[in-house]
Amino acid sequence: MKTVLTIAGFDPSSGAGVTADLMVFAAHGLFGTACITALTVQSTLGVLSTHPVSNEILSSTLDCLNADLPPSGIKIGMLSCRINAIKVDSYIRQLRLQHSGVGRGFEIPIVLDPVLRSSSGRELLDPAGIEVLQDSLLSIVDWVTPNLDELGVLTGRPVDSRGDVPAACAALQDRVAEKSGGHHRLGIFATGGHLDPPDDFLMMPGGEGIWLPGERVVTQSTHGTGCALSSAFLSRLVLGDASQEAAKAAKRYVSEALRTAVQHGLGRGPMNHLWLLSNEKDQVSMAR
Amino acid sequence: MKTVLTIAGFDPSSGAGVTADLMVFAAHGLFGTACITALTVQSTLGVLSTHPVSNEILSSTLDCLNADLPPSGIKIGMLSCRINAIKVDSYIRQLRLQHSGVGRGFEIPIVLDPVLRSSSGRELLDPAGIEVLQDSLLSIVDWVTPNLDELGVLTGRPVDSRGDVPAACAALQDRVAEKSGGHHRLGIFATGGHLDPPDDFLMMPGGEGIWLPGERVVTQSTHGTGCALSSAFLSRLVLGDASQEAAKAAKRYVSEALRTAVQHGLGRGPMNHLWLLSNEKDQVSMAR
Fold this sequence. Notes:
homodimer, alpha/beta, nine-stranded mixed beta sheet, 9 strands, 41% helix
């Protein structure tokens, strides 16, 4: 059973952040570890406040986990502030060096979900932190999973309609290639949950783009949808899927997690992260 | 699907603390929310450091969750420091008042796992915090789940052998009754994992004590065993079991989680919290 690491925020209502990511990993038969970048106070009604974890704790946690439970894949979510984005950037650079030193040409997949703002409007990464993403971190991860707003912020151009998406992805990919001195081709899994139909666009590292058809699931339980898609995509990559298959499987996973969700709370509740494991008829009898 | 809350520490290696508790709740078909009292830096090799969360964040998190996702049961684990123990104490007192105000005589079950020290020897609750437990918090929870060391600290007398356990439980129950002005009868689920045989002792609120036979499972994956037993016990109480049945079911749950664990890390790794849901043969095919 492989180990995967999530570096993200903490959501006490279990809809998003590290606890949701750990459930997604578990649903895919993977063992998850977690490094919290920031505590948030939130419920299904929205984010009330965010509190970055100190750089010392972040640093010590990443080193401690890496020494004992080295990851086979990494998901990066909310980073909260510039200093934590820089720490994560240097951790990933150090890992990449370690792996290239092994001489096997093997690199673990790293997926970054650019969590910039909550659905309720709260800033989840400060502007100086967004610059760290643009100027450095995106050059060393394999995939980024922005929604249309995030794609707009990362490219500095509005992305409002289906027609804007392919060009914005190409612009982001070119920009990252340029920042990395021309050698890094970032893969982009742009999520179009607010488009009609809600299709996603997959821009392969080689520059080929394809639309992945989406379906609208009518539910109030949409808290952390982007988090889960990104973690499910990483999970499938770690399990050995090629990127297109991984993206399609992640979409199926999220659709079913939405479809089978039970309503919790008064607002946007959590999805059913563990549906892949659920076997409700056996559950009670096995416990007895 | 009922909501249960864990108030405990955070373990990045997923063996103990809130992320393990959430898995235990999920395994029992319950929805878990979480309030972190302290971040820890740890792996399967032990606890490196602990960092209490500020009282303001703790307070705001409990209020935020309670307004949107009121719990049907609460597990209290690591409290870290006096000021956080006092905050949790006042939160529970406020909840108890709310429920008595409803006039239904209904009270949600609350189980406290007195996490005082890690297996690797690090202090997880300061001495002033232990006094808050002894003088106040134990008087308003329904059950406490100490191991023999913790029972010794809480009673101020050594608990080394099987023969010491019933008298120590009686002494703790009497002490708490006295502190509460005579009206509160604390239930005690004393875990004898280090006894041979590793039997547990259940002291009912009414004073009746019974031994629950345990079995030794040979595995290195014993990280967070106490956490999980306590959370599984709470889960069964929330699902409606009487206390003896809940205790027996919790023991079966933990034994199977130990037996089916896969080794992770170089030290004491996590148990298989989700064994109740696992259906490995279907897992991959359902994902495709």
